[in-house]
């Protein structure tokens, strides 16, 4: 494979030597270094990595985001990289098309002398250029977290099949899932749902797009929060909230809204975690750098296995807890790093320049026993509406 010195590579790629040196410094694009003379040599495959960096930068990703998305991933798959870029560019084109339509609508009402402020607010909501990037990162993080569980769980039933098996849907005509994510709960169950009207909601348009792509048109998709359900009272036979309630800004309001939307004796199913869930991940991150905090506020404190029953009993009866027995045995340091980087704390800032060192640290832990044992504490509350 042909190699290029820094100046030649910069000329061919039409970037500055200063840019390449900066990417090298932050570990984003590191050439091979000749140990004898110190010269840096780039390869043809480095053009693939550089192209993805520049394309994602143009789409709106920060260098920090790009670094954490591609670092340590080995050789870039060209087709996969280009298809991803194409998808993101199409989303960006849709964003600008919607923005242009909103601007034209406001201009028309303004010319008539009666500016429609509701249209202007719509324009304001469309003028957030980080939406495509944010939606991709959220969706990517969800996939990463689910993949770790799918790949290393000892319980081979799987979380979503187990969850679905505990739902009483036989006589449920109207069903609502609050916070549906990418629709994983329903992926393999569509054949059993012909006589049900199922509404999937999420606060993220990106997640709803993923659910549509995964499930098709057999479901109704709506963007709203569990704290404000736009349906009449006593409408649903079943409401489901899978790992969602602890994200609510006003949990008592969300519980009240769900109860209102449910029929009397309608079923509510909600899942959550316990205090020990994935504790080894937190402990490993803190052992490597005591400043790392993976979650600013533990989710289980807001709504967890230990306090969920008491929070539900104000609106629901016959509250029962089903525990999902499982743990992880992780054998690949890179998969664990991806999971840690997908969390909501300060780990990106602390690890961005130490990924290689952190990978070595985790691999040594794996080599001690052949795998890293990770505790899982999760379950589902089943209850009836009062």
UniProtKB/TrEMBL annotation:
Gene Ontology molecular function terms on file: DNA binding; methyltransferase activity
InterPro entries in alphabetical order: DNA-bd_dom_put_sf (IPR009061), MerR-type_HTH_dom (IPR000551), MerR_fam (IPR047057), Methyltransf_11 (IPR013216), SAM-dependent_MTases_sf (IPR029063)
Top-rank lineage group of the source organism: Bacteria
One Pfam short name: MerR_1
Ranges in coiled-coil conformation: none
Signal peptide limits: none
One biological process term in Gene Ontology: methylation
Keywords attached to this entry: DNA-binding, Methyltransferase, Transferase
All copies of domain HTH merR-type, residue ranges: 3-72
PANTHER family assigned to the protein according to its UniProt record, in alphabetical order: CHROMOSOME-ANCHORING PROTEIN RACA, REDOX-CYCLING DRUG-SENSING TRANSCRIPTIONAL ACTIVATOR SOXR
Name of the protein this chain belongs to: DNA-binding transcriptional MerR regulator/trans-aconitate methyltransferase
